[in-house]
Design a protein that fits this description.
The chain is an alpha/beta fold. Helices cover about 30% and strands about 30% of the residues. Pathway: Amino-acid biosynthesis; L-phenylalanine biosynthesis; phenylpyruvate from prephenate: step 1/1.
Amino acid sequence: MALPRYAYLGPAGTFTEAALRQVVSPDDAVYLPQTDVTSAIAAVRAGDADFAVVAIESTAEGGVTATLDSLASGEPLVLLREVLVPVQFTLAAAPGRTLADVRRISAHPHAWVQCRRWIAEHLPDAVHVPATSNTAPAALIASGGSGELPFDAALVPPPAVETYGLTTLAEHVADTASAVTRFVVVGHPGDVPPPTGADKTTLVVHLPDNEAGALLAMLEQFAVRGVNLSRIESRPIGDSLGRYSFSIDAEGHIRDERVGEAIMGLHRRCPFVRFLGSYPRADAVEPTVHVGTADADFVEARSWLREVRGGTAT
Ligand SMILES: O=C(O)C(=O)Cc1ccccc1
């Protein structure tokens, strides 16, 4: 049988690849490195890959906008699983370089944000040379082209030093020791992974135009059913100023009564709701269930209403 094909941000050794390895071993899948997350997602839509693994959120920057925007419109795709990867960097360079040589640092924009304070403290004169991924500059150094490189050193995932034969200039480069990036497996809609009791549901919601309190009304759909949100971000819809799309992670599974009821409420009140999947939480933390919002409470309330309507309630 053909192996499943996974598109991800390459080249080899990125944090995205570390996330992909948590999902499936390279022996059991075809790894398809891409130059950006939009291309990884597009490869699934085009049928060139079965799944994509992409960063969706980081402790430093919140949502990864390229991922959120690619998923918010276009042919519907869903999130099937999430994976957390702790993130810290090594400042590395071609053999022979020293820290004193470093002025231009190549780094993925998200990496640069996560190391800004460290750089300001240790290399205050350094300038950022944007890279397409955390290992793209390492691959450039390793390819040893004849031309002069446009950077002196790069922020790379620690294992990339060995993979690409680099020299370490500084280790444990990070502004926060607990920095984590969250990755998701993206695939075509189909069977939703079954509830585990510790799940997350991702949604895209548009609000009615020019309606006072529309945002509050949207949030109330979750609040009154005891559904906690773990992420909410607004992104421009892109057609005119003032029109925003909300990207939301809610605790729970679409098969949980309180989550299902909240999504029905959104469907009634909002012009556009896209279900982006229910999948197990990587940290396996179960939601706090408030009084009256357990599955059994919704089922009981529905049967009570049936009895009231039928005149048989006691
Ligand atoms: O996957 C990678 O290594 C990337 O280049 C993207 C990235 C950037 C910063 C933190 C985590 C992932």
